[in-house]
Specification:
The protein is built from 17 helices and 7 strands. It is mainly alpha-helical.
Length: 395
C-alpha cells in the first residue's frame, strides 16, 4: 500500500502548513522510506504515513484548524494535535519564541533571521542524535554504500577470514553447493524454497556438530528434535533471501520451471577474492534491493530507511558489550517521532535489525547472560571486528 500526501493535507514535516504550501515541491525535505514490497524489491519513492495516522483524525484536525482562533496564536500542527509534535515543530516554536519582541520590518529580514536560526539549529549537536548535528544526521541517512557516498563507506581493507562470521556468506555458499549437487531445484509459487531444501540445510548447518541440548538452551519449551524443527525452520527462513540474491544477481537461471547455477557464479568462485566480492554484493543488495522487514508491521519500514544510524549506534555505543534493549533506547530517542515507541515496536526493531541484518552479516558479537538459576536473563551485543574493519566513518 502506498501512502500519498494530498495537496491540501497537513505537511508531513510538521510545519502546520498545507502540503502544497510547504514541501510539495521540495521532496528532499521529506524522509522517504521503502514502500510496497513484492518479491523482495524495495522501491524508495513512497512517503510514509505519520505515526498513528488515522483518516478520521485528519478530518477532526481539519475542522479543529478551521475553527481555530488566531488570537491564540498560530494554529497547532497536525502532529501537535495528535500529541506527538516532531522536531520541525519544536524548531519553529523555538524560532517564534526568539522573535518575540523583535521589530521585524520586512519579509526579507524575517527570512534572514529564520535562515540564521535554522543554520544554528542544523549545526548544533543533539543528545538524542548521539551528539550528531541535524546536518550530520541528514548526511548519514543519505549514505549510499553502492555509490560510496555519504557519511560512511565500505573499506577495501578487510581481513577476509572475518567474512566467515557472516551467516549470509556461509548460507549462500551452502545453497550454491546444494544446487550444484542437485543439478537443479524448483521453488514454490511464492518464491520460497521447499521443505526438503530447508530440512537439509538445518541438518547440514544449523545442527552440524551441535548437541540438541545446546540448541534447546536457546529455544525454551522443546524436548526433542521434532519439537525443535518448527523453530529451526523459522530461523532458516532467511535462506530464501540467499536464493533471491542469487537469482537477482544472475547466479541462478530458470529453465522449464527449474533453477540451476549459471556460468557466472561458477566463474566467480574460481577467481581470487570472490568471498570479498560476494560479501560486498550481498551487503549492498540487502541494503537497497531486498526487504528484510519480513512479515512485520509496515510502520517499521523506517528501520530499513534509517539503517546507517543503527550502524552508527553500533560504532558509537557498542565497543563493549551492552544490553540489546539499550541500543533500542538510542534508536527510539532519535526516531520515536517516525516509528512509534511501543513495546511491540521495540521488539520488532531488535528482531529486524539484529536477527535479519546485523547478525546475518557478522556485524555484531553476541553474549548470553544467564541468571543464577541458569535461565537466560539478558542478551548483550557489541560491534564485531568485521564491522570495525568494514566501515570507514566520516562524521
Amino acid at each position: 500500500m502506498s501512502h500519498k500526501v494530498g495537496r491540501n493535507d497537513p505537511c508531513p514535516c510538521g510545519s502546520g502548513k498545507k502540503y502544497k504550501k510547504c514541501c510539495m515541491e521540495k521532496a528532499d525535505n521529506v524522509l522517504r522510506f521503502p514502500g510496497d514490497t513484492l518479491s523482495g524489491s524495495v522501491p524508495n519513492n513512497s512517503v510514509p504515513p505519520l505515526p498513528g495516522f488515522d483518516p478520521e483524525k485528519l478530518v477532526e484536525y481539519q475542522a479543529f484548524a478551521g475553527a481555530w482562533d488566531d488570537a491564540k496564536g498560530p494554529v497547532p500542527s497536525f502532529m501537535q494535535y495528535l500529541g506527538n509534535a516532531n522536531m520541525a515543530t519544536d524548531v519553529l516554536n523555538d524560532l517564534k519564541h526568539k522573535l518575540e519582541g523583535v521589530d521585524v520590518k520586512s519579509e526579507k529580514q524575517l527570512q534572514v533571521l529564520a535562515d540564521m536560526h535554522m543554520r544554528s539549529h542544523n549545526n548544533t549537536p543533539m543528545d538524542e542524535l548521539l551528539g550528531l548535528t541535524p546536518s550530520q544526521m541528514r548526511c548519514l541517512l543519505e549514505t549510499n554504500f553502492e555509490k560510496g557516498s555519504g557519511a560512511v563507506k565500505l573499506s577495501d581493507k578487510v581481513d577476509t577470514d572475518l567474512y566467515g562470521k557472516a551467516s549470509f556468506i556461509l548460507w549462500t555458499l551452502w545453497l550454491v553447493s546444494y544446487i550444484d549437487g542437485a543439478g537443479e531445484i524448483q521453488i514454490s509459487e511464492y518464491e520460497q524454497l521447499y521443505d526438503e531444501v530447508i530440512d537439509q540445510f538445518i541438518n547440514d548447518i544449523l545442527l552440524r556438530g551441535k548437541p540438541l541440548d545446546e540448541v534447546k538452551s536457546h529455544i525454551t519449551g522443546n524436548r526433542n528434535k521434532n519439537d525443535l524443527m518448527p523453530a529451526l525452520r523459522e530461523q532458516a527462513f532467511i535462506l530464501n533471501g540467499c536464493f533471491i540474491f542469487l537469482r537477482d544477481k544472475g547466479y541462478v537461471k530458470k529453465r522449464k520451471g527449474m533453477y540451476s547455477l549459471t556460468a557466472k557464479v561458477r566463474n566467480m568462485i574460481k577467481t581470487q577474492g570472490f568471498i570479498d566480492k560476494l560479501f560486498r554484493e550481498s551487503f549492498v543488495w540487502m541494503c537497497y534491493d531486498y526487504n528484510w522487514l519480513g512479515f512485520y508491521a509496515y510502520d517499521m519500514e523506517g528501520v530499513q530507511a534509517t539503517l546507517p544510524f543503527s550502524l552508527y549506534i553500533l560504532h558509537n555505543k557498542c565497543q563493549k558489550y551492552i544490553p540489546i534493549e539499550k541500543m533500542a533506547d538510542y534508536f527510539f530517542e532519535a526516531f520515536g517521532h517516525i516509528i512509534e515507541d511501543t513495546d511491540s515496536s521495540r521488539m520488532e526493531y531488535m528482531v529486524l535489525f539484529f536477527d535479519n541484518f546485523a547478525e546475518f552479516f557478522g556485524l555484531i558479537d553476541i553474549k548470553y547472560k544467564k541468571s543464577k538459576s541458569g535461565s537466560l536473563n539478558d542478551i548483550l551485543i557489541r560491534e564485531s571486528e568485521l564491522a570495525r574493519q568494514l566501515f570507514v566513518w566520516d562524521i
